[in-house]
Amino acid sequence: MTSLLHLDSSANRSGDSVSRELTASFAETWQARHGSAGYRYRDLAADPVPPLDTAYCTLGRRLERNGLPSLAGIDAWIRSPAEEREWGLTRLLITELLAADTVLIGAPMYNYSVSALLKAWIDRVSFPGVFTDPDTGKSLLRGVKIVVVTTRGGTYGPGTPREAWDFQTPYLRMYFGKQGVAEQNICFVSAEMTLAGLVPHLAHQRPLAANSLAAARAEVTALAATVGRSASGATA
Q: If 26 and its partner were Cys, which of 22, 113, 120, 224 is the partner (CB 3.0–4.6 Å)?
């Protein structure tokens, strides 16, 4: 069954979040094509992922010293209630991720990078060894499609004065690539100048903002209509 994991990481839950609007459009289009049975939604603002603590680190280091067992074998290495609690929280998120054919991430730019809400999720699912097939050594995420919807108050695209200030897109591309996701399976959709409608000195940029948002809306709809998993297990 084709499956979608939908993550929103905007702190703004008031209804006027652009990233939430765009990811919702993707999810609606995807469900219209595939149904709702394979859809999983996680709001990282409504249900924040706890930051890592000592028990998480202790368990992870113990596994690294002992050869990194498979996901199913980690329970046997737990030595305390705190480690059991940390692993319970972590395993749930990892299981969700590994079950997905497509991962949709709403990632507004906060201070030139991702939100703390998204970073907490990334830190927790990045448990040592869990994305590696113990039999083949290959990444368990190699066939997953990652769709990241980014929203920025200004412009940070190639050739713009603030291109070098973007620590969001390069970070996410590097992170998922390092986890074994194929480069061609990592897609970014960006809506820029989202502050133009709010900040008076950016009023002259409102046409640019409107065009960027319209293009992003069209792109997420088109992507949602085409992503999926073929019978051979390759991402379409």
A: 224
68: left (phi over 0), alpha (psi -120 to 50) or beta: left
The tens-digit pLDDT sequence of the chain (236 residues) is 799 999 999 999 998 999 999 999 999 999 999 999 999 999 999 999 999 999 999 999 999 999 888 888 999 999 999 999 999 999 999 999 999 999 999 999 999 999 999 999 999 999 999 999 988 889 999 999 999 999 999 999 888 889 999 999 999 999 999 999 999 999 999 999 998 888 888 888 899 889 999 999 999 999 999 986 443 333 33
Question: Angle, to 10 degrees, between the axis of helix 116-125 and the axis of helix 81-98?
Answer: 100
The answer to whether 216 and 149 have CB atoms below 8 angstroms apart is: yes
Q: What structural domains does the chain harbor?
A: 4-226 (3.40.50.360)
Residues 6 or more apart whose CB falls under 8 angstroms from that of 52 comprise 86, 123, 124
Rounded to an integer, what distance in angstroms lies between the CA atom of residue 107 and that of residue 23?
10
pTM comes to: 0.92
Q: In the structure encoding, which two tokens stand for residue 143, read together?
A: 């066939």
What's the number of CA atoms in the CB half-sphere (13 Å) around residue 9? 23
The Cα-based distances of 138 to 62, 172, 179, 180, 181 in angstroms read 22, 20, 10, 8, 11
Q: Within 10 Å of residue 85's Cβ, how many Cβ atoms? A: 15
